[in-house]
Structure formats: structure tokens, C-alpha cells
Specification:
mainly alpha, about 10% strand, 10 helices, about 325 residues, three-stranded mixed sheet
Length: about 325
């Protein structure tokens, strides 16, 4: 998996969530707090999600087959999308249902010190897990904002763990607030309201995760920095004079497909064109090591064809929409 950083963050979150889930469930049994039950299910769902990410990372390492010639790198996207479904259904919808039932049929909290103590412990444990995810994400994030990192990261594991941990921390604060207000006012409806808020929070996080992983599943291009490096590497100004058009596609977080139509000298021999293509591929792989699948098609650039417009079919020797060359 990209990185041990992603795996380390997942394992840290899994260990924290398993311990917290047990503690929360015990607190629910002693207190009858719906917030604690919702948080117990939330932690169980999160634990299952981290297990899904680990399974996805393992399956993505399989070798390519004739049926799947580009390998299984997208398995990681599939399992990350499953995480959003689990978070939405098992976490969010259950919490909303439990909160509604608690508001409709209030039940007095018993042994209040159990949920309060467990929530404080859970906040501390989740804080350590969140800190690990932040620490492992920083080298990959670079100068990007956290929003940009979550939106544009090609490896889904760290953004998923970051959002889960953030949601867990906010959910714990909401649960603590609900339990606290129920104790202060003597009205356990507040516990149900806290549970409803947890459900809404989890659904919102699930929707964000679903939108981002859906984009990865559909197939995203390389980032702007990688595209610039690839374009610079392909054109040498001698044998390859320009890029007529180019497309990139992530086959997985660490595998990139590059397909481009390149302009070569009109008087080059077939052997010279083949050598130019081989040299261009070598330069691209050196500049962007994850560009492992490269297809370069030689052509003669035509100013007259290019002047007709950006339609690929109408102008085989001209640029296409979005091409900068």
C-alpha cells in the first residue's frame, strides 16, 4: 500500500476503535444512554471500515492477469467506496433511528459516570489516532490545504481515516454534550438529540467520502504537477517536437497510464521514430516513476489541420480540447 504511512494510520485507528467500541458498549449497558449505543455502533462500523481498507490494500497488490491486464490497483478505490456505504447505513442511519426512538420514548440515564468516563477515555484515544493520521498525511500533503488533500489525494486510505477520526471526535463531543445536558436538566431527550446530531454528522461524512471515491473509481487524470513533468519529458525539441494531445489516467494510486499523440519530424525513418518513442518513454518514467503504462503514437503536426479546430476526429494532426501544445 502507498505507503506504510497509510497502513500505520489504519492500524492505529483500528486498534483505537476496537478498544473504544467495547468500552462504549459496556457504558451503554450500565447507563441506557442512546448516545452511547449510537457511538458503540459508530466505533464498530469504523473498525469494519479500517478492516475493509486493509483488505483493499492487500487485494490491490495482485499481479495483472489476461482478464485484468492493467492490474488491480483500483481495488483500493472500491473498498474505500464500501467504507462510505457502511458509514452511511450502519453508522449514520442507525444513529438517527436510535435518536428518534430516544426522543419519542425517553429513558432516564442510570450510572451516569459510566458514559461520561468512557466518553472522556474515547476522546483521548481518538485524539491519538487522529494525531497519527495527521502525522502520516503531512509528508504527502505538502503545501496543500487539508481540504485540497482530501479532495485530490489519489490514495484513498489516509483521507478516509482522517475524515473518520475527525467525525469520531466531533461525534464524541456531541455525545458528551447530550449526556451532560440530560444530566443537568434531568431530561433524557437531550441524549436523543445528541444521538440525532451524531447520525447527521456521520451521513455528511459518508456523502463526502462517497463523492471523492466515486471520482477515483470513474478514473482521474494525473495531477497538474505530474502532467507538467510528463509533457516536459516527452518533448525533446529534436526528435519529438511537440505533444498534439495527451491523456492520463490513474489505474491505481501508484500506477499511471499515459497516452499521447506526439509530433515527429516528417523525414524521420521508422527506426528513428521508434528510437524517439523509446527515449521519450524512458524520460517519462524517470520524471514520473508511477507512469508505468505509456502509449505514444507518432504523427506529423499540421498547422492547417490544427487550425480547423480541436475536434480529434476532424483534425488528426491537430490538438484536442484541453491540449496546451
Amino acid at each position: 500500500m502507498s505507503a506504510s504511512g497509510g497502513t500505520k494510520a489504519i492500524v492505529a485507528a483500528l486498534a483505537a476503535n476496537l478498544a473504544i467500541a467495547v468500552a462504549k458498549f459496556v457504558a451503554f449497558l450500565f447507563s441506557g444512554s442512546s448516545s452511547m449505543l449510537a457511538e458503540s455502533v459508530h466505533s464498530v462500523a469504523d473498525s469494519g471500515n479500517q478492516a475493509l481498507l486493509l483488505v483493499g490494500g492487500k487485494k490491490a497488490q495482485r499481479e495483472a492477469t489476461p482478464q485484468h491486464p492493467f492490474g488491480y490497483g483500483r481495488e483500493r478505490y472500491v473498498y474505500a467506496f464500501l467504507v462510505s456505504i457502511v458509514l452511511f447505513s450502519v453508522g449514520g442511519m442507525f444513529a438517527i433511528y436510535e435518536g428518534y426512538e430516544k426522543i419519542k420514548h425517553p429513558h432516564e440515564l442510570e450510572h451516569w459516570y459510566w458514559p461520561v468516563g468512557v466518553l472522556v477515555f474515547a476522546i483521548i484515544a481518538e485524539s491519538f489516532s487522529f494525531r497519527t493520521a495527521i502525522k502520516e498525511s503531512n509528508p504527502l500533503r505538502g503545501k496543500k490545504s487539508w481540504k485540497e488533500f482530501v479532495r485530490h489525494a489519489k490514495a484513498p486510505e489516509l483521507p478516509v481515516v482522517l475524515l473518520e477520526d475527525l467525525g469520531a471526535l466531533v461525534g464524541l463531543v456531541l455525545a458528551l454534550l447530550g449526556v451532560g445536558l440530560a444530566l443537568i436538566t434531568g431530561d433524557s431527550v437531550w441524549d436523543g438529540i445528541g444521538t440525532l446530531c451524531i447520525g447527521v454528522l456521520l451521513i455528511l461524512i459518508a456523502l463526502v467520502l462517497a463523492a471523492e471515491t466515486k471520482s477515483l473509481l470513474l478514473g482521474e487524470a494525473a495531477g497538474g504537477e505530474e502532467v507538467a513533468k510528463i509533457e516536459s519529458a516527452i518533448v525533446d525539441g529534436d526528435k519529438v517536437t511537440r505533444i498534439i494531445h495527451m491523456r492520463t489516467l490513474h489505474l491505481g494510486p501508484e500506477e499511471l497510464l499515459v497516452a499521447a499523440k506526439i509530433a515527429v519530424q516528417h523525414d524521420n525513418t521508422a527506426a528513428e521514430v521508434a528510437a524517439a518513442i523509446d527515449a521519450a518513454e524512458a524520460r517519462v518514467r524517470k520524471a514520473v516513476p508511477i507512469a508505468r503504462v505509456i502509449y505514444l503514437e507518432p504523427d506529423i503536426y499540421s498547422e492547417s489541420e490544427a487550425a480547423k479546430g480541436p475536434d480529434r476526429d476532424a483534425t488528426p494532426g491537430g490538438p484536442t480540447p484541453g491540449a496546451e501544445h
